[in-house]
Amino acid sequence: MSIDGIAFHKGEKILLKDATVGVMTHALHYGHAVFEGIRGNWSEDNHEMVIFRLKEHYDRLLRGAKILRMNLPYSSQELCDITVDLVKSNGYEQDVYIRPLAYKSQELVANLKLHELDDDLTIIVVPFGAYIDNEKPINCQTSSWRRPEDTMMPTGVKLSGLYTTSILAKTEAVSANFDEAILLNHDGSVSEGSGENLFMIKNSEIITPTETDNCLLGITRDSIIDIVKNEMGIIVKERKIHRSELYLADEIFLTGTAAHVTSVGSLDNRKIGSGNIGDITKSIQDLYFSIVIDNKKIQKKSDYSSWLTSFRI
Ligand SMILES: Cc1ncc(COP(=O)(O)O)c(C=O)c1O
After folding, report:
1. 196 CA distance to ligand 1 centroid (A)?
2. Whose CA is nearest to atom 2 of ligand 1?
3. Is the CA virtual torsion 105, 109, 112, 115 positive or negative?
4. CA–CA gap between residue 39 and residue 226 (Å, rounded)
5. Which domain holds residue 109?
6. Domain boundary at 58, 93, 127, which?
7. On the chain, which terminus has fewer CB atoms closer than 10 Å, C or N?
8. Rounded to the nearest whole angstrom, what is the distance from the C-alpha of residue 154 to the centroid of ligand 1?
9. Structural domain tally of the chain?
10. Distances (CA, A) of 267 to 3, 81, 243, 245, 271
11. Is residue 297 situated within a structural domain?
């Protein structure tokens, strides 16, 4: 099945269905690539596309490319400009998902070389709906799969190969009739969801694993930390979280570009708080949506316009 969409591929703007690579491509065999997941939210009220923290996503992509020693001939700003142009030509008046992928593009050679390979970049834009229904809390399972340590594979950026762990964890959770997996670190502390960062609320304190707890350095995570500080006057505490602390939390929520802010109703068949969306989570969710989608007219103390790239199609 082909997905209707558009791509910037090998330096050209083309239809997504024509953006192909050969089966011998290095990245396909070894997961030797780095990507981003970016949302363009369609504002029906203002009749414009609003891309959330575009520059920060490309900054993270370039950090991943640096770790992989890739040579990409684009600055973060150039990538933003290419993306805006692509979304405009796409013409969708609905939410879109933007997926840049920087990858080792060389075809495998007879000696199966793993180093000194060519790089390339593709950016695709496709229509996108809800990843998780944010209206109701989800049921999570502590995964039997552990989040890799940064010494095994860099965890702060979106390396393609790293997602094997997320895929195993999510598949395990869904096969057991849960919605999402929570992964622990090798030392047993909490890291994150298969595609989301985790926040826990206990006695009105908001706590999230630290940047060195092997979680992805999420852009939504970073935004929530700022929003909670600016709008609620609460400093999010970044510290190690024990697995059993989660069972006793008043509220838990997950954050991510795809998942937005999603409440966790239960973990390993134990209700979290009342099992419903908690009051603090609901306030954070409303504030977040009022910034990202502008669907709730909430008066805010700070200005977040620098996070938004808005334009008419
Ligand atoms: C493993 C993982 N953690 C966390 C996140 C959340 O990151 P962000 O808020 O930048 O989308 C994602 C989603 O991209 C992810 O894949």
Report:
1. 5
2. 195
3. negative
4. 19
5. 6-127
6. 127
7. N
8. 14
9. 2
10. 35, 42, 10, 11, 7
11. no
Whether 43 is covered by a domain: the verdict is: yes
133 domain residue, yes or no = no
Same domain, 114 and 142: no
Q: Give, using CA atoms, the residue closest to atom 12 of ligand 1.
A: 195
Geometric angle at alpha carbon 297, from 292 and 300, rounded to 5°: 75
Pocket test for ligand 1, best of 55, 99, 196 (most atoms within 8 A of CB): 196
Q: What is the pLDDT of residue 129?
A: 72
3-state class (DSSP) for residue 292: helix
pLDDT digits (tens, 9 = 90+) for 24-36: 999 999 999 999 9
Q: What is the CATH number of the domain that holds 36?
A: 3.30.470.10
Which residue has the CA at smallest separation from atom 1 of ligand 1?
A: 195
pLDDT digits (tens, 9 = 90+) for 197-229: 999 999 999 999 999 999 999 999 999 999 999
> How many C-beta atoms surround the C-beta of residue 20 within 10 A?
11
**Nearest one of 292, 311, 273, 279 to 38, comparing CA atoms:** 292
Active site residues: 158
Q: Cβ(172)–Cβ(221) under 8 Å? A: no
Q: Tell me, in angstroms, the distance from the centre of ligand 1 to residue 175's CA.
A: 22
Whole-number Å distance, alpha carbon 111 to ligand 1 midpoint, is: 35
